[in-house]
Fold:
Amino acid sequence: MKEHTPEGSDTEPGAVLFEQDSGVQQNLGFSIEVFGARGSRVTLDVGDIHLNRQGIVHGGIFSLLLDVAMGYACSGKFSDDAQIPAITLSMSINYLAPVSSGKVIATGRVTGGGYKILFAEAVLKTESGVVIATSSGTMKRGA
Structure:
């Protein structure tokens, strides 16, 4: 994790960027940005390793990206540096469109809750803005 303020990039100044924060992130190759209480953004460049046998991104990958976006949005609400983890208690997903290539972006935000339990939602879109999937979830403050 590091403070990230690059010039000439999509990353917002002051965002906390998580690189190689977990084994799953390293293996699947997605990036995570947290904007404090304003939410999070998770980005993935779709590759062959993300596709199912029908040649489209596996729904489990979409689910994971939405879950990560909601979890890090909650972590950003728990603390500005997003170091307090959020544990998913429940999650609902709506799959709306298939994708087989390009960049996908999940944005997460907190919609309510209190000190220990937060409610969140996330939207997954293509780079051109087509909504691929949406989710809502309940997250618990971790250790």
